[in-house]
Specification:
Distance between the termini: 43 Å
Mean pLDDT: 85
Largest sheet: 6 strands, antiparallel
Low-confidence stretches: none
CATH class of the largest domain: Alpha Beta
CATH superfamily of the largest domain: Chorismate lyase-like
Helix content: 10-25%
Oligomer: single chain
Number of helices: 7
Length: 231
């Protein structure tokens, strides 16, 4: 039995152990790769694929809390926390004026120690003020907001396909152009006030997106993809 992430022995060693020809073994490995059970890496070998974390778009939990609840070891690296002026496209999502003062929080999420999600969060300055001393490596934004009385009531989310930029490729330790999920989420507090905009770049090899549908539970709207803007 091989553990998640463990490298398989050399093909010749496996073929001898299982009493099959190299051709038969390679065909079997191809089937396992197509089913997502193993991953082949050029120059390194074949590895047992770790179970994917599930990102449930019907959930109103923070991303870190959701993955942690599934039993995945997740840690957060705070890349930056800066005061900025709201870009026009973010201001529209938050119902604010372009150039309004805001705080931009940039984080890297690692699942099992491996970079998996890059996340940029924008908060209007009035909302972010009480969070000035929060340690975002151990506290989620949703949790921090709740402590200030800004209870999260609902969120809208857009999910689009994308590819890694050169900058994010370095952060996520993947080549430029790798396919990713792009999640844009606007979170609302009581009174339906937009208090947080998140853009998450998610590596699909570690995380799958899922929703549980019922007659009146989750609203999913399909639209033609528009032009994406860098966060």
């Amino acid at each position: 039995m091989y553990e998640s992430g463990q490298a398989l022995p050399a093909q010749r060693e496996l073929s001898t152990a299982y009493g099959v020809t190299l051709m038969t073994l390679r065909q079997a490995l191809q089937v396992l790769a197509e089913r997502g059970l193993v991953t082949r890496e050029a120059g390194r070998g074949t590895f047992v694929t770790a179970p994917k974390a599930v990102y449930n778009i019907g959930s109103l939990q923070s991303l870190s809390d959701e993955l942690r609840a599934q039993g995945h070891p997740i840690d957060t690296v705070l890349l930056s926390r800066t005061r900025r002026k709201l870009p026009g496209w973010v201001a529209v999502r938050l119902g604010r004026e372009a150039g309004a003062p805001a705080v931009r929080v940039e984080r890297l999420r690692r699942v099992g120690g491996v970079p998996a999600i890059h996340q940029v969060s924008w908060l209007p300055e009035a909302v972010a003020g009480p969070l000035a001393h929060v340690d975002f490596t151990s506290t989620s934004l949703y949790g921090a907001l709740a402590e200030t009385g800004a209870v999260v009531e609902r969120a809208t989310e857009r999910l689009n396909p994308g590819v890694l930029s050169a900058r994010l490729g370095k952060i996520l330790e993947k080549p430029t152009g790798v396919p990713v999920f792009l999640s844009d989420r606007v979170t609302y507090s009581a009174g339906d006030e937009p208090v947080l905009f998140d853009r998450a770049t998610i590596l699909g090899e570690f995380i799958e997106v899922r929703t549980d549908r019922a007659a009146s539970a989750v609203s999913v709207l399909w639209t033609r993809a528009g032009q994406e803007t860098s966060a």
